[in-house]
Write a structure and sequence with these properties.
The complex is a heterodimer of chains A (about 170) and B (about 130). With about 170 residues, chain A is of the alpha+beta class. Chain A is built from 4 helices and 8 strands, in the order ββααββββββαα. In chain A, a hairpin with a 6-residue loop joins strand 3 and strand 4. Chain B folds into 2 domains: about 80 residues, Arc Repressor Mutant, subunit A; about 40 residues. Helix content of chain B is about 70%, strand content about 5%.
Chain lengths: ~170, ~130
């Protein structure tokens, strides 16, 4: 059985939502999001990047630090933040600050808030919904400039529908 | 180069930010239409529709057809395709991680069920009988 691919929608002008289902029990999916040794195996970023730093103190007020390194020129960037809500196996909320590392590009994004919901479906399926709130349209649009996301108001599905018979 | 693409995306997304303009594009996806035809389904004036059409035109999302009398508007696919490609890149980077996660989860699920099978069958039956 193949799972539907990740969906990206834009629920408001300061948010991005990513949804994906997995064929695994919810407690296992939660583990894969919260145990550093497991996170390090899949949260690898763009092709050609590895994740040498993955520290996570998963409890309310605990900190995490993720860092990626380019295989090609060893340049680095990362994210860090604090866990705000930790409710195994259903919910995880953390702040997110960009760490420019040696990539060093101006990434004026302030604090983003990332909410991850783990929902049990029938048939041993778990759906993970990641909502990233950039705090303001300006902050989200600043993230746009780095190519991470864009100042979009409409959903991918709309574009998809518009394009289906034209392009 | 990068900022040119970014500017063009900004214009596209700004144009798409309005529900009336999105409805116009959806209508034009079915084929070209005159301003009068486009104004029909909306409870707003033709000048208001014309204003929306100008925004869409400036963003390169629509063009004016050959017919000098009707001046039909038609949808231009390229900027939408660009916007779509951008979102697709963002989506694809998540999907690449999630496909690796599929592998990790398959492994976790396998080892969890192997542990389950090691329980003596009698104990499994008793558990099945007492629970639910």
């Amino acid at each position: 059985m193949t799972m539907a691919k990740a969906q990206v929608t834009l629920p408001s002008d300061r948010e991005v939502k990513v949804t994906r289902s997995f064929k695994a029990a919810r407690p296992l999916v939660y583990r894969a999001f919260t145990e550093p040794a497991l996170v390090q195996r899949w949260l690898l970023g763009p092709p050609g990047w590895s994740m040498p730093v993955c520290e996570m103190d998963v409890r309310v007020g605990g900190r995490y630090r993720w860092r990626w390194r380019s295989d090609k020129d060893a340049s680095e960037f990362g994210f860090a933040g604090t866990f705000r809500e930790v409710e195994p196996p259903s919910r995880l909320v953390h702040t997110e600050f960009y760490d420019p590392g040696t990539v060093g590009d101006a990434h004026p994004q302030g604090e983003a808030l990332v909410s991850v919901a783990f929902t049990e479906e029938s048939g041993g399926i778990t759906t993970v919904t990641t909502l990233i709130d950039f705090g303001s349209k300006e902050a989200r649009d600043a993230a746009v400039a780095t190519g991470m996301t864009d100042g979009m108001e409409q959903s991918y599905q709309l574009l998809d529908a518009l394009l289906s018979d034209r392009v | 180069m990068q900022s040119q693409i970014s500017d063009r995306l900004d214009a596209t997304f700004l144009a798409l930010a309005d529900p009336t303009r999105r409805a116009i594009l959806t209508r034009l996806a079915r084929g070209e239409a005159s301003v009068t035809e486009l104004a029909e389904p909306f409870a707003i004036s033709q000048p208001a529709i014309s204003k929306h059409l100008k925004v869409l035109e400036r963003a390169g999302l629509i063009t004016v057809g050959q017919d000098a009398q009707r001046r039909p508007r038609r949808l231009e696919g390229k900027p939408l395709a660009e916007a779509n490609a951008w979102l697709e890149r963002y989506r694809a980077s998540w999907e690449a991680s999630f496909e690796r996660l599929d592998g990790v989860l398959e492994e976790l699920t396998r080892s969890a069920s192997t542990r389950g099978r090691r329980r003596p069958p009698s104990q499994m039956l008793r558990r099945a009988g007492t629970k639910r």
